[in-house]
Amino acid sequence: MIDTKFSPAAPGSRRRILQIGSAGVLVAAGMPLRAALKEQPGTTKLLKVGVTTGPHEQVFEVARRIAERDYGLKIQIVPFTDYSRPNAALDAGDIDANSFQHRPFLAAQVRSRGYKIVGFGRTWIGPIAIYSRKYKSFKDLPEGANIAIPNDPSNESRVLLLLQKSGAITLKTGIDPVAGINATPRDIVENPKRLRFIEIEAAQLPRTLDDTDASAINADYANKAGLNPVRDGILVEAKEGPYACLIAVREQDKDQPWVTQLVKAYQTEEVREFIVKTFGGGVIPAF
């Protein structure tokens, strides 16, 4: 004879029964146990994505989780500490994509080094700014002030264009960073305050602040140094312009489905909210 009388379940067993029951419904409906993918994975290989440490790495970690959840992509993030190596690694096939550079930087690298790399999908823009530990505003810089600037062609030009827009210098005509016509200090035709420029590798610029009157620092390196252009910059680049960062891949991969999925995973409201909440205006969504 079967006892039909109810017996209290052991602690936790009711939850397990409900979980098993829910899983059974999903299996019966032909759905996977994990959340249903938006699309089938564009590749089953492990994708290695290079990023510079700091904001690019932080944001891409969020995008990586979304790419796995929604598209089934398997991604390994490969961090770099400077701008010189991610494109070399991508071109050599050591990584499958990278996320760290704006279009003028990519164009300059392709032109000077012959890389077969293309950019997709805007990610974020980090306004470059000039910082100083000696002066509260840009107009306070004295005649002959020394300013440290990035030594790579695209970001050096970016700073000089910012200075021209502020009225501090005048450059010769024809400078066009998108077309790859970048400015150097030799292209300055007017410099009323006789500002002097010291060219430094971008990653080292935060360390120059104690030794210069001012230093121009990219947003990702500024962030790692505890600087925010909105709060700390004495001259800040406008949000508009060609300097939104991209996801880059090799030309041979540009039509692969996983490239589109990677961009879609990045350009989500979840990533946008993370950027806005985390960086306080120092990094701005560009999608």
Characterization of this structure:
- The structure is a single chain.
- The model is unreliable at 1-34 (pLDDT under 50).
- The chain has helices spanning 13-28, 55-71, 86-91, 103-113, 153-166, 219-224, 229-232, 257-266, 269-279, and strands at residues 46-52, 74-80, 97-102, 117-122, 124-125, 129-131, 146-150, 170-171, 188-190, 196-200, 214-217, 235-236, 245-250, 284-285.
- The protein has a five-stranded mixed sheet, sandwiched between helices.
- It has 287 residues and is of the alpha/beta class.
- It contains nine helices and 14 strands.
- The chain is 33% helix and 21% strand.
- The N and C termini lie far apart (68 Å).
- Helix 2 (55-71) links the parallel strand 1 and strand 2.
